[in-house]
Amino acid sequence: MITEENKEEISVEKEKKIKKISTIIMVIIIVFGFLVLLDATLVKTANIGPFLAIRTKVYNDGGTKEYYGLGYKVIKYNQEVGRKDTVIGTWSLKYNTTPLNFTLETLAYSIQNNNNTYKDSFIRVSGTINKIDTKNKTITLQFTDNEKGKYNLTVEAKVLSKLKDLKKDQNISLIGTVTSYDKNTKVLTISNAFAK
What we know:
By secondary structure, this protein is an alpha+beta fold. It has helices spanning about 5-45, 105-115; strands at about 55-60, 65-70, 75, 85-90, 100-105, 120-135, 140-145, 155-160, 170-180, 185-195.
């Protein structure tokens, strides 16, 4: 026969069991969330991984790979001539190899007027070569405005293509991914660039 004391013991035991199970579930969720966050951070900052995502597609563009993880998607671009960066986002992230197009002048005005540094954007910028550093494989483009330097801009591009056919004061088009913009020196850095 079940007495009041037995009912209390059963409900206390059930409550302890429920607390134990919910604690285990919460610990698993927190650990898994930390691992996903760590994986996404390694992909974005160190360009390694993803370790917790499954490769679902390889594009016939030079080897671009697409990965799906729990709640995130990674595209590692590896075009033969074009995009060579890694993008991380939600599952709705689209494969996109169309760059934002600028002249050096319009890019300078856009950065100042729109307060957008285009960091991590895939862009094409056209201008005149100011300097070629063959040792470091860097091309520099420079824009100087007529408004006391407000819109001055220097673009430094780490180039993957050959530099031997390029000359100072030649008009070119650079395509690559913006890695940084320094507001003090007004220098925009492009990595994995190709020059045409």
